[in-house]
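yo, NAD-dependent succinate-semialdehyde dehydrogenase is done. seq:
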Amino acid sequence: MTTQVLDYPTQAYINGQWTSTGRTFTITNPATAEKLFEVTDCGAPQAEAALQAALEAQKTWRKVNPFERGRIIAKWAALMHENSEKLARIMTLEMGKPIIETRGEVKYAASFAEWYAEEGKRYAGEMLHMPFDHKRAMVRYDPVGVCYAVTPWNFPAGMVTRKVAPALAAGCVMVLKPAEQSPVTALYLAELWEQAGGPEGTFQVLPSLDPVPVSKPFIDSADCRKITFTGSTEVGRILFTQAAQTLKRISFELGGHAPFIIFPDADLDLAVKEVMLAKYRNAGQTCVCVNRLYVHEDIAEAFTAKLVEKVKTLKVGNPIEQTTSIGPLVEEQGLRKVERHVQDAVEKGATLDFGGESLGGLFYSPTVLSNVTSDMLIMNEETFGPVAAITTFKTTEEAIELANNTPFGLAAYLWTKDIATGFKVSEALEYGIVGVNDGVPSAASPHVPFGGMKFSGVGREGGHWGLMEYLEPKLVSYGLYD
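structure:
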């Protein structure tokens, strides 16, 4: 099909200039297979240029008053709100998230800029007592320095601002490599940063089909002091090893395999409501989506019936339409994985309660499986699709053991009316985020910490924790002599 005429930037943004390389790659609408854009394909030369520009920009940006930095970041947030429909639309076109969800993501993305515009003014040093009468000690916080970020396609605006806003607020400059499936969203955010008065070199965007040549200069250079990455655990482990060669600061948000435990005292209608939020957003393509549903055996049949009833109301369709609740998967590889997980489960004895069908193109029907067992792929791998897998448990201890029986530890959920159960189980779960009677614990909340344990990551984003990821404490000790 022919390319649409869409008013969005498609060139790299390097040192305040929109830059072409003579090479491009194609962005295709996953819902329609229509070609949308030809986007500049960056390589090592552009990465080197961006690194040098960042080093120069860092010298001045770190000295800019935090109140002035905050003013620019706040203007950036305001521009996101002013252009919210345009920003929501490009996310939907690029990666297939329903427009009703991308409008919410615009608010989510802007909230990080709003939060850090203010939080960047609030961090302060400390005066410490010393064991010597003639000494005084002060702790101040300095910017880490030049930072490099790699962001995913599933939250193409929210993941950008969650990394870039705290870095800029702390006095760091940022070079971003956005996901190759959704780079235009990031480029549009760079355009808005430029309109907000963001100085040259403070925020640069390098779209690329191949992340390796673009990332290598930043990984190898000791002058790049931090890498932040959201993506797969496999890639995160590689970056972790590479970053160690120059002892960089890192913050990684990696894969998840979230459990949701439904205790026998649960309000089933409310529990189903929260499971729907935690499972089927973005067609199940988020790292905090529920992968494993552990339902007490006494209520499993009733819970499954209520869940199927709700899942049947989900409308699969073109995500640009207002009434669509489930859009396409982002690419063929993801669709094949979902198909493989469902087929494997059914072949091993799971009950297909609803769905389980490819609907043409990259669309897959919202699905419910029950009688799932621990030997099935869906219980051992992150599905990243609209499939709910239900198994049962007998005791609280068993539920905790099952939920923790994974190398991942990003998000977990549970539903109970008993406050003691809520406290005890949340404390026992080995996860960075736990939702008790809450399927979206970090929604619209830029002030809370987001991150995982074990193979799900290192460091935190959001709140003052996210700001501290970009600051270095420095001890300054004064000897006072007459």
